[in-house]
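Postdoc handover notes: sequence design on the structure in folder B. Input tokens:
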């Protein structure tokens, strides 16, 4: 698709200067250009600057007047669980009234209730629900999204979820990246070691053979998967060509970060509970810290020490963690507001965290996440005179247009 976006008041490029991500002080640099235009050719950014060359001006192509508007790279939601069935509003309502986790698990089942609903749901139903959620994410500016399995906890249903994610990548207007999260929880109907064997020797080889996932993820936490189990699962995943990512340090620090970095994980996600060993393990590695402040908000648990991570030059990304139990919102702009208000990240750091650094958390920052020649034409136009207004004017969606590979999709 060819497209000219003309006369934007501000273009926030999130320029990389050739790097994969932004860390430390560089995370505050957003590469602002004022009163400028962008030309997208065949879905890729071809030119960007203040004075449109005559050769572009004379082209008979679609033009968008961005006068008095702000242009940003498309947002990337690098951590979601958007494929699910069922409803946990009852559980939420009980939690708000003061029920404990145990009481909720007993009455409603917690994550296991979602597992039951997903096992029962037909593939077409799961896909319909997930597509609606993706379109909702797009309406908040998401042009690339990641989605995990992990509500099947048996081979048949994990495969069903991954098939849905792959079909959504083909059929939805945005890129949908697929993560195998068999090690999300232990199923009730088999022993722990039986289930880990199923992950290692049934699920991983089958998923790799059918090319159903790019990443392999797990939940490293007390009473869930231990560090030694994670290492086994990652080792097997890597053998079959999957890239590790890890849910870790949400409630306890049990060594998940060190293990993930040793396995070459592309990101470690959550990190609400961090000690100096965890920071040291991350510092100097290429692993992106992906923070999920909507979970802290929704569960009323501590927020990740984002400033400490940024001070230690660790690249920070932000994602929604959209899921029915701990963050029931696909609104990435809400995550951005929480990052500024609760994580004390500045507006510039926050914008880089949902664009270029989120792309790095998926290993795709060479292709998207910034407005630079050669990158995919994934672009947002906000009806605001400046980028700060997007977060300053909170709780209101001021998005005017969402562009994916040069095509207006919302
Ligand atoms: Zn998650």
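Designed sequence:
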């Amino acid at each position: 698709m060819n497209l000219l976006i003309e006369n934007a008041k501000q273009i926030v490029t999130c320029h990389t200067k050739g790097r994969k991500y932004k860390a430390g002080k560089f995370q505050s640099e957003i590469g602002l250009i004022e009163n400028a235009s962008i030309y997208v050719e065949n879905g890729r950014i071809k030119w960007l600057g203040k004075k449109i060359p005559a050769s572009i001006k004379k082209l008979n192509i679609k033009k968008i007047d961005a006068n008095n508007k702000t242009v940003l790279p498309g947002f990337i939601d690098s951590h979601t669980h958007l494929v699910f069935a069922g409803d946990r509003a009852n559980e939420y309502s009980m939690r708000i009234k003061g029920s404990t986790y145990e009481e909720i698990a007993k009455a409603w089942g917690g994550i296991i209730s979602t597992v039951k609903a997903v096992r029962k749901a037909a593939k077409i139903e799961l896909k319909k629900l997930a597509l609606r959620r993706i379109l909702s994410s797009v309406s908040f500016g998401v042009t690339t999204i990641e989605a995990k399995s992990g509500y099947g906890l048996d081979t048949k249903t994990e495969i069903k979820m991954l098939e849905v994610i792959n079909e959504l990548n083909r059929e939805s207007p945005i890129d949908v990246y697929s993560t195998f999260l068999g090690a999300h929880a232990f199923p009730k109907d088999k022993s722990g070691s039986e289930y880990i064997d199923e992950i290692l020797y049934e699920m991983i080889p089958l998923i790799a053979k059918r090319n159903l996932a790019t990443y392999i993820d797990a939940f490293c936490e007390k009473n869930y998967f231990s560090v030694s189990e994670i290492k086994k699962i990652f080792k097997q995943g890597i053998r079959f060509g999957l890239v590790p990512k890890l849910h870790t340090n949400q409630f306890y620090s049990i060594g998940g970060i060190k293990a993930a970095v040793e396995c070459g994980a592309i990101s470690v996600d959550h990190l609400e509970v961090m000690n100096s060993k965890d920071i040291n393990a991350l510092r100097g590695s290429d692993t992106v810290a992906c923070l999920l402040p909507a979970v802290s908000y929704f569960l009323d648990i501590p927020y990740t020490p984002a400033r400490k991570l940024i001070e230690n030059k660790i690249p920070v990304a932000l994602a929604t963690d959209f899921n029915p139990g701990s963050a029931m919102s696909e609104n990435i702009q809400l995550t951005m507001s929480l990052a500024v208000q609760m994580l004390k990240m500045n507006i510039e750091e926050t914008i880089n965290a949902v664009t270029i650094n989120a792309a790095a958390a998926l290993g795709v920052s060479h292709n998207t996440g910034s407005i630079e020649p050669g990158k995919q034409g994934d672009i947002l136009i906000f009806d605001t005179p400046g980028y700060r207004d997007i977060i300053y004017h909170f709780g209101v969606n001021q998005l005017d247009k969402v562009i994916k590979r040069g095509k207006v999709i919302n």
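Context for whoever picks this up: The first strand starts at residue 3 and ends at 12. Don't rerun without checking with the PI first.
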